[in-house]
Amino acid sequence: MEEWACLRPTAAKENTSSPADVTRPFENLECYMVLTKAEKTVIGSICFLAGPITLLENALVLVVIAATATLRQRPSYLFIGSLALADVFASCFFTTSFLDFHLFRRSDGPTAYLFKLGGVTMAFTSSVGSLLLTALDRYLCIHQASSYKLLLTRRRALLSLLILWTATILLSSLPLMGWRCPTGLSPPCSRLFPYINQAYLACWTSFTLVLLALILVAYALILCKAHRHESSMTTMKGAAGTGHARMRMDIRLARTFGLILLILVGCWLPALSFMLADVSVVLTHTQQRAFAFCSTLCLVNSAVNPLLYALRCRELRVALLQLLQGLCEIGRCKKSTGDISPGPPTEEENDCSVFTEDEMPKNPQLNSVSEMC
Fold first, then answer.
1. Is the peptide bond prior to 188 cis by the omega test (within 30 degrees of 0)?
2. How confident is residue 248, by pLDDT bands cut at 50, 70 and 90?
3. Which among 18, 44, 294, 339 is least surrounded, fewest beta carbons within 10 Å?
């Protein structure tokens, strides 16, 4: 293909006196630096805007959870903290490496490039994995409401996070440990990432798709449970109960979960689709440029995650207000605190997953679902 003519052997290949030079390809990373000036401006603006916002939002969530004892003890907030930590890493690794490569055209060696890319891979994989743990937490909360505290203890939550982060770090380190292109830039290398073997790219993409599918299944099961519960409650109450102004709980949950899943799939599916295509066909420069834009949507997803999963939670918002109040008092800031609501409930008061208060059901077993973050 003419667009990949830059992937040619070096002239040193003709020198038979140097066997090392015979197998060394002409590593021209400019084959991957395909953005036009206008595209650099647009994508650079997205990164410069979304990167700091993502970092500040998720760092704020981490600080609030770490500074509030009642939140630190609850598995639900441990998962949200893991999500925030992964998105902090994503904002740092992705923004710096993406801008460094595509905008500033920095050509690193294989080890340096794969180390940076490994950081991005670890961050995004941990982010999706934390979303899965959050979805499973809510699934257990509604399907095993009576035994939720026994099934999901703080120790088990920490163990699951340890397994998640160990697996993601190991998976992200495989190219550094040797699973890379044997010929540098020529096939079977990826057309999207230098030095990345297409088999590794297919493995990581498939793993991420499985995580996303499990998230979809978990929320679908939650909606089915909520729908069956609401139908039974409507039957018991009769027609009189159908005239309430508030929507049915299952409809509210469908709306909320639909928004969450729409954002998740909309941000991840385009980039993953290009990765799958890269394994089977030779991508053009136009497709490479499209992938560069789609990859920034993953960063946008990390910026939206705190708004969907953390800052919508009443307990975390109250803890944030109390933290700001404490900082104001330390700085001798005179501010009235009479309207601040009571602190977050203890673990005994709310022993299930965290959800938003605008979807409060009347059945205590589904209380956590109505407070969905």
1. yes
2. low
3. 339
Chain centre to alpha carbon of residue 155: 23
Token reading at 25: 């390809």
% the chain with pLDDT above 90: 30
The Cα-based distances of 165 to 67, 220, 224, 344 in angstroms read: 22, 26, 31, 28
The rounded Cα 67 to chain-centroid distance in angstroms is: 23
284-306 average pLDDT score:
90
Residues in the chain: 373
Q: Is 144 exposed, middle or buried (0-12, 13-18, 19+ CB in 10 A)?
A: middle
Distance CA 198, CA 82 (A): 29
Neighbours of 34 (CB within 10 A): 17
Give which of 120, 128, 262, 276 is closest to 202, Cα–Cα: 276
Q: How far apart are CA 168 and CA 161, in angstroms?
A: 11
What b/e sequence results for 187-208 when a residue is b if at least 16 CB atoms lie within 10 Å of its CB, and e otherwise?
Answer: eebbbbbbbbbbebbbebbeeb
Phi/psi at 189 (5° precision): -75, 155
DSSP string, 148-191: HHHHS-HHHHHHHHHHHHHHHHHHHHTTTTT-S-TTTTSTTB-S
Residue type, 179: W
Residue 197 pairs in a beta bridge with 189
What is the longest distance spanned by two Cα atoms in the chain?
A: 92
| In contact, 95 and 137? CB cutoff 8 Å | no
Give the three-class secondary structure for 9.
strand
Q: Of all residues in the chain, what percent are helix, strand and coil, respectively (each to 5)?
A: 70, 0, 30
Cβ neighbours for 143, distance < 8 A, ≥ 6 positions apart: 221, 222, 225
The pLDDT confidence band at residue 231, using thresholds 50, 70 and 90, is low
Which parts of the chain are beta strand (E)? none
Residue 128 in this model has a pLDDT that exceeds 50: yes
